[in-house]
Amino acid sequence: MQEDSVAAVDTLTKSYSQKWEAANGLAESSAFIQAAASYDLIFIVLAVSLIIWLVLLFFIIRVDKKVSRLEQQIEETKNS
Question: Where does the chain cross the membrane (predicted)?
Fold first, then answer.
């Protein structure tokens, strides 16, 4: 039983070592791939989520301005 657990640990260390197959072509890959490999991926996830939140905020503000404009037009037509 102990030999099986040692073998499992050994395969994990081989899988996640610096000799990973994808690391060989890292120098020739795009800038985005190099950034993702050099930094923790959490920063990329945070950046993408920040962009999504900013786009949603922009959309909500734009819709609010349009609704306010329409409400003004309705009030003006009621008063006339």
Answer: 41-61
* Alpha helices for 1-80 (secondary structure H): 2-15, 31-38, 41-79
DSSP string for residues in 63-80: HHHHHHHHHHHHHHHHH-
Amino acid identity, position 44: I
CA 56 to chain centre: 15
CA–CA distance, 72 with 4 (Å, rounded to integer): 74
Question: What's the domain range around 53?
Answer: 41-80
Domain count, the chain: 2
